[in-house]
Write a structure and sequence with these properties.
Strand content of chain B: 5-15%
Strand order of the largest sheet of chain A: 11-15-14-13-10-12
Helix content of chain B: 25-40%
Structural class of chain B: alpha+beta
Largest sheet of chain B: 3 strands, antiparallel
Helix content of chain A: 10-25%
Strand content of chain A: 25-35%
Radius of gyration of chain A: 24 Å
Number of helices of chain B: 3
Order of helices and strands of chain B: HEHEHEE
Distance between the termini of chain A: 53 Å
Strand order of the largest sheet of chain B: 2-4-3
Number of domains of chain A: 3
Number of strands of chain A: 15
Oligomer: heterodimer
CATH class of the largest domain in chain A: Alpha Beta
Chain lengths: ~230, ~90
């Protein structure tokens, strides 16, 4: 982020104020905001001065999702006593995505799409688009048996007998990604138990399904329905 | 190599590429049938588009919303969204 100070301040003071924002901070969402405007506690895990020239301060910040950078810049100005505002912001990382070789421009997307449509060559499109599973690699994971896939694809919660394997970082109340044994993303959910508990369970629910990705009917349905109940 | 090994291998590979690690606990030994589903990297191009994400370098100016609308128009698809401002597009 680039912060513009409203008056020149000595570098040492800027650095100590930047340091002051490390750790827990309190923010109230801005007036024009779509969320409830109660004070929120956010963590600034890392904050580093990359450059400071004249009134311009370039910072690298690693923070909780939903931390207001504009507010952070403004508050720095208040503490420095000269006022400040955010001039520019760039997100360099979010979840598993960062500025690496997978980052593409809209231009590249358009060209890859054109090439595929005009010549049938899909190699570039496959380089520009990654499988959806890539967006969930940072999450704890549960792989389910073929027999459990379609129930989850229908939005059912995951039951213990459907679990084939899982990662040790599965924790109750935390998000979890649910995959097939082929590695296909079925759904996102919220775990109800810890990994160790799930490994020992032979009945009961282990995760609540919150967002289904796989269409219904890709895997065979295995649960029984009462014919003629009209509840289907 | 069995289908399951390929599937788990794929997840481990993309996980490692992003700097994370999967520590697995096997609960029930099982394989997966080749009759349904597909390894994520073997999806046909249409499915690859529909179940794909783009790590997009959005220029300042257009909003995330606008760029999503362009992407939908370009690909002629109904469902697309975005998450984070590094703009991954989920179709």
């Amino acid at each position: 982020m680039i912060v513009q100070l409203h008056e020149v301040v000595e570098r040492g003071r800027v650095e100590s104020v930047v340091e002051y924002f490390k750790g827990r901070i309190y923010q109230r969402p801005p007036l024009r905001s779509s969320v409830k405007r109660s004070i929120r506690v956010k963590n600034i895990y890392e904050i580093e001065v990359l450059d400071y020239q004249d009134k311009f301060l370039m910072l690298r910040v690693l923070c909780d999702p939903g931390t207001y950078m504009r507010k952070l810049a403004h508050d720095m100005g208040l503490i420095l006593g000269v006022g400040a505002h955010m001039r520019e912001l760039r997100r360099t990382r979010t979840g598993p995505f960062r500025e690496d070789e997978t980052l593409v421009t809209l231009q590249e997307v358009g060209e890859a799409l054109y090439l595929w449509r005009s010549s049938g060559d899909e190699r570039y499109l496959r380089r520009v688009i990654q499988p959806v599973e890539v967006s969930t690699v940072h999450l704890p994971k549960i792989l389910v048996l073929d027999t459990a896939v379609d129930a989850v694809a229908h939005g059912a919660n995951l039951a213990a007998p459907g679990v084939a394997q899982l990662t040790r970082n599965v924790e109750p109340g935390k998000p979890v990604a649910i995959y097939t044994l082929k590695g296909e993303l079925v759904a996102l959910g919220k775990s109800l138990k810890s990994a160790d508990e799930i490994a020992r369970m032979d009945k009961g629910l282990v995760a609540e399904t919150t967002r289904v990705v796989m269409p219904r009917g890709v895997y065979p349905r295995t649960w029984k329905t009462k014919s003629g109940s009209g509840l289907r | 190599m069995g289908l399951k090994e390929k599937g788990v291998g794929f997840l481990d590979k993309i996980t490692a590429r992003a700097g994370y690690v999967n520590n697995w606990i096997t609960v029930r030994e099982a394989d997966t049938s080749p009759d349904y589903g597909v390894l994520p990297y073997e999806r046909g191009i249409i499915d690859h588009i529909n179940f794909g994400v783009i790590n997009l370098d959005k220029p300042p100016g257009p909003t995330s919303h606008e760029v999503v609308a362009w992407i939908k128009r370009m690909f002629n698809i109904e469902r697309a969204g975005h998450g984070g401002t590094l703009e991954p597009w989920v179709y």
